[in-house]
Inverse folding.
């Protein structure tokens, strides 16, 4: 059966039923016709499957790390791997990638996006989407549009002028649709110029479907639908999750009442049927069983991505670690032994492995003593680390009851692979989200003697038991910002434990009226006496130091923005002290967005690892010893201070006021603002170095008008194989743009990543087209390339231009 044949067979009621989820992740089946349930799953950094925490999946690097690769061939291979991961989880539609442009580095989901620059983001988006869909799995590109902050994300209105929208915030979506043929787009929670994105007729119907020719489906963000008539007629095809509140049977009733034309439902059904055909559902791909498919080739790709996306910001000869004089390496920092693989929120997956950087370095540095000191903790403002799964035996054995009292026999059971559980919808077959209880039990074996601090946060009443005794009572939860803003504060207790002794650790949870239920168990090891002094002593006695600092999913997560650029807790003090004790220090930042790197001044090396996925420890060890190269380049500007960022010029620009956030910076987002205002960044957009050096020369621009090709020659002038990213910028300063039209000093319009052996040269050609020179004209509502002179600039960052020439277009 194909899509047209399905449409012809569907009754009006069946067509309407497909416009809303049957449950949290799936559309309802059409049993009469033997049509199964189309299944969706989150997928910005891996494909989780149908539940939070119950299946292991390969954890890939975060979006910022992927954007940092500037390598479209690698991104295509990444997309192919994601398709394979989705198939292993029985998923037809992956909810991703996240392609909104981060106006502020403080956004809680900045780590999910690809870049601050619309051109770079669009190129990565198109390559990724096309590759995933070539594997028979759909991409649902999100969040359409301007969903770039978590502050008041469900209601705030992004006030954006037409030119800014078109030049900065829509190109990634346009590339996904027009170039890659995206099969789905997710509408954003927020409002755009006063209207919810999920019922915005100009955005969904006018731009997306009519102008761009989008023939896929528009899916609401979860609980992001607000109406029946307005949403359906504007172009929202599917309301998620189920059971439906506005579409589905409510839409069928609206048709009967004459509020919605039958043609509207027919169009929704036609688009959904097309998606079913594209994803193989109509051909029988209805595999609900989820496999934990730990594929070695995909794991190797994840490691390659982690290295290719790591940005070496500075290196004064320390890296790679080598030489006969290397006796002792000190690995220091709160993230050193357990790198954070990803940020928090809906992008979380349960990784297959929890690697240890210290062990990975010891394996690669035989004969070298590798010592470790923590130095400090990421526990500022009462936050605790989530329980380290390396201390858990067998996962969390979880039982479910169809009542709130744990009475009778449990109706279902499964194992959790992390110390955090989220029920978004019914937690198990026969167990309803609005009336259940669970008990999750594991064996906890602490690795340190002393006073441990345990923590418990939840949606719904909960208790934490240790060896059968209640140690934390959270049965009257106090509301906080955990669990997408629906969870409780973290309630803590101190307990005395001995290293190596096994304890039974249990969580009891009772459902709440919220659409999300869940719990998180935190555990902080005993405080290390004089942790800073021990770290400084270890640094002083080492030949080289690897200092890993950064963030974690508590601080970078869906639902809340960061408070500032500063490193969390006492990390800044730790960095300054360690670097002062031993300048032969490589500072590694394990975070998903820019941070204040001023404390690392004086360190021999500075590296942005981002959230590298579960292969991060192995990839980092390989980069440190030189068997792999950190070949990434920054996809976002690192400011010296948050006030240097354009959106922080005025509080109405961020975080907003009166339910509105004004995009007052216009098209001057990221490096464009730094250029226009003469602000010096800490590290410029596009910046990065490696383990070799390169020369760029022989620049020429071929062609005529706006159909041009930039040609140049790149030579590896260093002593080892390495990568360089050639970046082509266009400046329109010499054109006859109308008065009042301010154009950026330069805009990225092309790039190429090359890998060369020592002494090797290659010719690079980068194509420019009409859009490379055009601006959005609000009078003609079209792209216009003004006549005059354009500068073509070639460099290795927005602030490091190596060659330039002028052309007339």
């Amino acid at each position: 059966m194909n899509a047209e044949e399905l449409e012809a067979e569907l009754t009006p009621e069946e067509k309407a039923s497909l416009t809303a989820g049957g449950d949290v992740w799936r559309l309802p089946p059409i049993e009469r016709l033997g049509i199964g349930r189309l299944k969706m799953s989150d997928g910005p950094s891996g494909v989780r499957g149908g539940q939070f925490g119950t299946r292991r999946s390969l954890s890939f690097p975060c979006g910022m790390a992927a954007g940092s690769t500037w390598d479209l061939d690698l991104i295509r291979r990444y997309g192919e791997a994601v398709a394979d991961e989705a198939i292993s989880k029985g998923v037809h539609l992956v909810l991703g990638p996240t392609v909104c442009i981060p106006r502020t580095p403080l956004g809680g989901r900045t780590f999910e996006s690809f870049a601050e620059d619309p051109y770079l983001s669009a190129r990565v988006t198109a390559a990724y989407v096309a590759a995933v869909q070539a594997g028979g799995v759909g991409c649902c590109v999100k969040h359409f549009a301007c969903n770039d902050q978590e502050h008041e994300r469900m209601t705030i209105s992004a006030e954006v002028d037409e030119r800014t929208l078109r030049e900065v915030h829509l190109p990634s979506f346009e590339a996904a649709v027009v170039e890659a043929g995206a099969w789905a787009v997710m509408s954003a929670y927020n409002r755009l110029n006063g209207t919810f994105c999920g019922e915005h007729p100009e955005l969904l119907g006018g731009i997306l479907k009519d102008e761009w020719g989008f023939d896929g489906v528009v899916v609401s963000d979860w609980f992001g639908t607000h109406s029946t008539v307005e949403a359906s007629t504007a172009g929202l095809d599917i309301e998620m999750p189920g059971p439906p509140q506005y579409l589905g049977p409510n839409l069928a009733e609206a048709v009967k009442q004459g509020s919605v034309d039958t043609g509207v439902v027919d169009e929704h059904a036609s688009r959904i049927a097309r998606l079913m055909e594209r994803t193989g559902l109509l051909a029988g791909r209805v595999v609900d069983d989820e496999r934990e498919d730990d594929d070695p080739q995909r794991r190797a790709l994840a490691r390659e991505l982690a290295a290719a996306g790591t940005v070496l910001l500075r290196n004064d000869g320390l890296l790679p670690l080598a030489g006969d004089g290397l006796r002792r390496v000190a690995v220091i920092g709160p993230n050193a032994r357990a790198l954070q693989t990803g940020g928090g929120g809906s992008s979380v997956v349960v990784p297959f492995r929890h690697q240890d950087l210290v062990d990975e370095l010891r394996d690669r540095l035989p004969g070298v003593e590798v010592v470790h000191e923590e130095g400090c903790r990421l526990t500022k403002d009462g936050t605790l680390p989530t329980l380290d799964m390396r201390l858990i035996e067998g996962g969390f054995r979880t039982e479910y009851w169809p009542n709130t009292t744990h009475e009778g026999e449990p109706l279902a059971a499964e194992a959790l692979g992390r110390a955090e559980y989220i029920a978004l919808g019914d937690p198990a077959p026969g167990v309803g989200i609005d009336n259940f209880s669970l008990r999750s039990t594991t064996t906890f074996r602490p690795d340190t003697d002393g006073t441990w601090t345990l923590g418990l946060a939840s949606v719904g009443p909960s208790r934490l038991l240790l060896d059968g005794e209640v140690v934390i009572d959270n049965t009257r939860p106090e509301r906080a910002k955990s669990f997408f803003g629906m969870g409780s504060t973290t309630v803590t207790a101190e307990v005395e434990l001995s290293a190596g002794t096994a304890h039974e650790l249990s969580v009891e949870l009772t459902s709440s009226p919220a659409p999300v239920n869940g719990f998180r168990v935190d555990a902080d090891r005993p405080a290390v006496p004089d942790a800073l002094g021990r770290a400084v002593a270890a640094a002083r006695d080492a030949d080289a130091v690897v200092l890993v600092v950064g963030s974690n999913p508590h601080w970078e997560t869906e639902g809340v923005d960061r408070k500032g650029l500063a490193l969390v807790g006492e990390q800044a003090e730790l960095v300054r002290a360690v670097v002062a004790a031993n300048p032969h220090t490589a500072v590694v930042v394990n975070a998903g967005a820019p941070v204040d790197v001023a404390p690392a001044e004086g360190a021999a090396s500075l590296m942005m690892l981002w959230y590298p996925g579960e292969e991060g420890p192995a990839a980092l060890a390989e980069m440190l010893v030189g068997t792999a190269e950190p070949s990434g380049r920054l996809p976002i500007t690192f400011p010296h201070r948050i006030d240097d960022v354009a959106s922080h010029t005025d509080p109405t620009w961020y975080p907003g006021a009166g339910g509105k956030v004004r995009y007052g910076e216009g098209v001057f987002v990221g490096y464009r603002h730094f250029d226009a205002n003469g602000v010096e960044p800490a590290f410029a957009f596009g910046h990065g170095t490696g383990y070799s050096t390169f020369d760029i020369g022989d620049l020429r621009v071929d062609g005529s008008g706006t159909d041009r090709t930039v040609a140049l020659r790149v030579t590896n002038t260093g002593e080892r194989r390495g990568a360089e990213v050639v970046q082509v910028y266009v400046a329109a300063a010499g054109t006859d743009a109308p008065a009042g039209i301010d154009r950026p000093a330069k805009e990225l319009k092309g790039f190429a990543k090359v890998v060369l052996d020592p002494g090797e040269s290659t010719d690079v050609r980068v194509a420019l087209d009409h859009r490379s020179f055009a601006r959005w004209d609000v009078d003609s509502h079209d792209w216009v390339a003004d006549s005059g002179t354009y500068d073509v600039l070639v460099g290795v960052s927005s602030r490091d231009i190596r060659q330039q020439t002028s052309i007339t277009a």
User: Anything to note?
Assistant: The two ends are 52 Å apart (CA to CA). The chain is about 20% helix and 25% strand. Residues 72-88 form the longest helix (17 residues). Residues 29 and 36 are 5 Å apart (CA to CA).
